[in-house]
Amino acid sequence: MPLAFRQLAAAGNLDNLRLAIRPRAATAAGVTPASATATAAPAGAAAASAAAAASAAAAASAGAAADGDGNARRAVPRQTGPVDPLPGTGYRGPIFMDSDIYKTLEAIGWELARGPQPDLADYAASVIDLLAEAQQPDGYLNSYVQASGEPRYARLTWSHELYCAGHLIQAAIALHRGAGDSRLLGIATRLADHLVTEFAAQEKGLDGHPIIETALAELYRETGTGAYLSLARQFVDQRGHGLAGDSGLGRRYLQDHVPVRQAVTETGHAVRALYLEAGVTDVATETRDHELLDSSIRRWDDMLATKTYLTGGNGSRHVDEGFGDRFELPPDRAYNETCAAIASLQWAWRLLLATGDAKYADHMERVLYNGFAAAIATEGDRFFYVNPLQRREDHFEKDDPGRRRAWFNCACCPPNIMRLLASLDRYLATSDDSTLYVHQYTGARLAGAGLDLELVTDYPWSGLVTLRVLGAPPAARGLALRVPGWSAAAAFKINNSPERTVAAQAGYLKLHQEWQPGDEITLRLDMTARWTHPDHRVDAVRGCAAIERGPLVYCFEQADQPVRLEELDIAPGTQLTEREVILDGIGRTFQVCAAARHVPPGAGPAVQGITAVAIPYFQWDNRGPGAMRVWVPLS
Ligand SMILES: [Zn+2]
User: What stretches in the chain show pLDDT beneath 50?
Assistant: First the structure.
């Protein structure tokens, strides 16, 4: 939370919102909106404004001290590419700055579900005051458009108006479900009603950045208002007919080149594509549209087989933050935006709910422990926007050395990280009337199908998972435990019964019986470190292998090697050994070691007997700069 709060304060998101309030008053007094300045805050927000200003100053200096690059010295974001706001409006930052406020409010909603936190509740209340004041009488709400005086919906390709609306709706649902606070839900439904009035049964254009689809579907679930679901379905079906406009990066960039039902593979900007798919799955599920669901599943299977990195990341092109061709997965040029990992997880979750297939939970785990977890520094104060699988020792991208940063102009990732972390507990398990399904393993208290369970585990370091029954009804109940696809073997026992083997490829171990308080179910997964070989069609890593242990993808960092990382290779099939250690800058970890060769450049002989040491990928870049690689060449 602190990282995202600092970003919000430093970037001035709430100041933009205050600008959106001022033009109404200024216009009434005969002053044009563009000349209004952000010097005064509404009385209700004075305290928040002072706090924001104080922390903005702190964040600006902290960011400058902490970041090792030129961008860190900027107190406010400037460069925003094709989403640059018009100059002279007083508005600061990218055109989608409102969305970062909403993602933060969403995180607060999920946090408050765990118990009272007055600071967070007060912050949310002050921001909701501002939003209530900024919302137009007809329900419209967008700080950039209101502050700039630009016409509404005039450039939907880039304006992110519906994208910001989608995040507002999701924040409102989180605050309603998590904290029982309906104030933002009132603002969100007024905005959604306005969208229905403006867009339903019309072809006014499509927002260039999806998320409104899944937000409207979720708002339908929350309120029962069918018009929201209908509009979500309309937006899904309108895509692919050129309504999203010219992005300047081609129609594929906005997933507008072919109707959704006909698309067979993921293309274009990865975050947009994956948020759209989450919405497609929502609409398909709620409308029982099997054709639409099948199309989404078809693209998911294609993406997993041909366009997904070992870490679960997506996006192999920097030029458009987008998907590449099939098998175009260079480890050093991997883009893998953190937000794409979050979007991918949201899509997989919806497919899991729609189908019950464990492969989606398996992939969520891969994304969570690798592509997503690597975004965050051990100390929690820095983040990766881009998550490559290799960094060379002399790497630079323009003037950026490719390390985690405390600050990035496009600040979409930190609040997105926050809302996922704050809601992680909601992805652990599901239930129906008779069965509790456990999808992810971590210390937790789980309730469903009349069962009350305590989950105890040292996962992902240990493969031992224990479930203790705290409460159960006087009738048989099902308990379904996911058996990850990576586990070469799995066994279970109930209380002191003999251990039994779980059938291979089980997906879920399903137990059905009458349970008693005090019963203990133990699942043992195989955490033995293993070699993973790439599809031979991925040219960039042909002849290489990677190490995995349980759900964790491993990488080799220069800090652990006796010679230059780029001069190492490993014999195929080399046995792996493991050891638990505490490392400076990282903390507890399990290293995996392999006998390696040092192959110096030139004609010199290779030197045998070197030990190469790997650590979990999510822990990399916590010990200074240096080379890293997931895929290592085989000798
Ligand atoms: Zn992002």
Answer: 27-82
